[in-house]
Write a structure and sequence with these properties.
The chain is mainly beta and 145 residues long. The protein has a domain at 34-83 and 98-131: Sandwich (Immunoglobulin-like), CATH 2.60.40. 8% of the residues lie in helices and 32% in strands. It has two helices and seven strands; from the N terminus they run ααβββββββ. The strands form two sheets. Strands 1-2-7-6 form a four-stranded antiparallel beta sheet, with no helix packed on it. The longest helix has 8 residues, at 16-23. It comes from Reichenbachiella faecimaris.
Length: 145
């Protein structure tokens, strides 16, 4: 007997709902949905003893087209990747890059230092560092009686 690794794409049951989901999925209409719609950039979130770090994959977006807001414990990063259709005699056969606007929001914990948040943009990566506030970090060891 051999075991088959579960893969939800290959072991999907064929129902009417799944058929319509696949039919109207963005990947099916590749060229129509890539321009003028929204997209979601990939974000890596990590934590160290001193800070939270977010790394956004936003290639093709200029840093002045990205907006970062920190308001009442919520970090909001938004921007737009514009599709510039040049007037050259160029016919696209495939456009896989997503274009349009994006907005990502994150609820932050209470132990951050909002005055020291830093953002750096380099090589298509937006890195945001949110330092933790030393005064608000309450770490205590409880003795067992």
């Amino acid at each position: 007997m051999s075991l088959i690794k579960y893969n939800p794409r290959t072991l999907r049951t064929f129902t009417t709902n799944n058929l319509f989901d696949d039919l109207f999925n963005d990947r099916f209409f590749n060229n129509d949905v890539t321009v003028g719609k929204s997209f979601t950039p990939q974000v890596d979130i990590s934590e160290t003893d001193k800070a939270f770090e977010l790394s956004f994959a936003v290639p093709g977006i200029k840093k002045d087209e990205i907006k970062i807001d920190l308001n009442e414990g919520q970090l909001i990063v938004s921007g737009e990747r514009k599709f510039e259709e040049k007037k050259e005699e160029k016919n696209f056969h495939s456009v896989e890059t997503r274009y349009g606007s994006f907005s990502r929001s994150f609820h932050l914990p209470d132990n951050i230092d909002a005055d020291k948040v830093e953002a750096k943009y380099e090589d298509g990566l937006l890195n945001i560092t949110i330092p933790k506030d030393e005064k608000k970090i309450q770490k205590k060891t409880i003795a067992i009686k």
